[in-house]
Write a structure and sequence with these properties.
Nuclear Transport Factor 2, Chain: A; 441 residues; 15 strands; six-stranded mixed sheet
Length: 441
């Protein structure tokens, strides 16, 4: 959960692009090579069950529907060559079977779980832009800067020093020396730092565009002045994917992001007003990866009749605490005396976990689905050079009811079911509850 918007185009991971097909090309006998080979075999088979089984075992962030769409469009992939590789990463060339389009690919696996894919990208083959090709001096500068920022700003000074020392040691022994691709370097640094810290909010990202100003100095008081952020949020309706009424009169809100309320509060207000006459409400956060805590508080505000203390944001370096409360002054009607169900999955993360955890602790909602991802830290961005930024956690949340948070453990649902079955389960319970004339839980 970054407290400041990051200006600049960040590289987009492409989890929907999958590969396939056995090939006469010799694949390295490494963890990355083994995973690439298995992936090619599964994807090229065209068998949805095989593809799904592979993704669940090696890349849980992939979605079967998009993978099968890629399989249909490309006809699978023929591996043409291996460009460069290390035990944890591999750069390769492939060709679409259906179109003969040439593709450059990158696959990275995790150091603490070599069977798990952390990055898979496919790009049109051809000369890389100059920005992607790193010199040894540029690579070393990024690694040094990352170590310095981690050692200085990470919320646990001791752990920050440990992570900084680790990537410096790996640099000295040549673990990064063959990496000339910015995306690849960012992924490898992220993996190494997370392997030590197990902190899913800690990340290094690569930007195709020059990061013109230090993100640390970017004011966070007025994100509504960022025209790029505004346009992006407006394009995806501020993360509000769907608001609907399900039989008999169950409100359903599919919310994929907690967007900045200074821009998106009107969208939130409209959605809640549309659902206000429902007999029960289901809020679907299964695909919500977080965002602005203030938007989580705004949505929660519609569920309480009186101002309610949700959580405390703690800056452990500055030793300051900011309380997060519901807003007593809201446009439209509130949803205060009716049952609410929140759907979760293992993809539910960050501010979406804040919403789930706090409302569960207050016994205001019933959580249905899977245990969430387990990320409770607050981060700030730091520039590592012209094309790299590191998000460094410097604080976290402490719930006033439980005295703790969900970091590393996730939020346990009240009703444990597979994420795919969570909506049906919540609908069944909501219908039974409203039919019996019950109000709150």
């Amino acid at each position: 959960m970054s407290l400041r918007p990051f200006l600049g185009a960040m590289i987009v991971l492409l989890p929907s692009l999958t590969l396939a097909a056995p090939s006469p090309v010799s694949i390295p006998d490494t963890p990355a090579g083994h995973t690439l080979s298995a992936w090619l075999d599964a994807f090229n088979s065209g068998d949805s069950a095989r593809i799904q089984a592979f993704d669940e075992a090696h890349a849980s962030w992939l979605t079967l529907g998009r993978a099968m769409g890629m399989r249909t469009r490309t006809g699978g992939y023929d591996l043409q060559s291996i460009d460069r590789s290390n035990k944890l990463w591999i750069r390769f060339q492939a060709r679409e079977k259906a179109t003969s389009t040439a593709i450059s690919g990158t696959l990275v696996v995790k150091p603490d779980d070599p069977a798990a894919i952390s990055l898979l990208m496919l790009d049109p083959a051809g000369p890389d832009p100059d920005v992607v090709t790193l010199t040894a001096a540029q690579r070393d500068q990024v690694i040094k800067a990352a170590a310095d920022r981690i050692a200085t700003f990470y919320l646990s000074s001791k752990l920050g020093q440990t992570m900084a020392a680790a990537i410096k040691t790996q640099q000295k022994r040549g673990d990064y020396q063959n990496i000339i691709d910015g995306n690849l370097l960012a992924a490898r640094l992220t993996d190494e730092l997370r392997a030590i810290s197990h902190d899913k909010h800690l990340s290094v990202t690569f930007s195709w565009d020059v990061v013109s100003t230090d993100p640390t100095d970017t004011p966070d008081q007025s994100p509504d002045t960022d025209t790029g952020l505004k346009a992006h949020l407006q394009t995806n309706n501020c993360g509000f994917e769907k608001a609907d009424h399900l039989t008999p009169n169950i409100g359903y809100l599919k919310l994929n992001q907690f967007a900045e309320p200074s821009i998106c509060a009107p969208t939130a207000t409209a959605a809640m007003a549309f659902l206000a006459d429902s007999d029960a409400l289901i809020i679907d956060l299964r695909d919500n990866r977080g965002g602005a805590p203030r938007m989580a508080a705004l949505i929660a505000s519609y569920l309480f009749a009186v101002p309610t203390h949700l959580d405390d944001s703690v800056d452990r370096q500055k030793k300051t605490t900011v309380q997060l409360w519901t807003d007593p002054y809201l446009p439209g009607r509130q949803f205060t005396d009716k049952p609410v169900y929140v759907l979760t999955s293992r993809k539910t993360f960050s501010s979406a976990e804040l919403f789930s955890y706090d409302l569960k602790a207050l016994k205001r909602v019933t959580l249905v689905g899977e245990t969430t991802g387990g990320g409770a830290h607050v981060t700030g961005p730091h520039r590592l050079g012209d094309h790299f930024v590191i998000e460094v956690p410097f604080g976290g949340f402490v719930n006033p009811s439980t005295g703790t948070d969900w970091e590393g453990t996730g939020v346990e649902p009240d009703v444990k079911v597979a994420a795919a079955d969570a909506l049906d389960e919540a609908l069944k319970r909501a219908r039974e509850q409203t039919a019996s004339g019950q109000s709150l839980r």
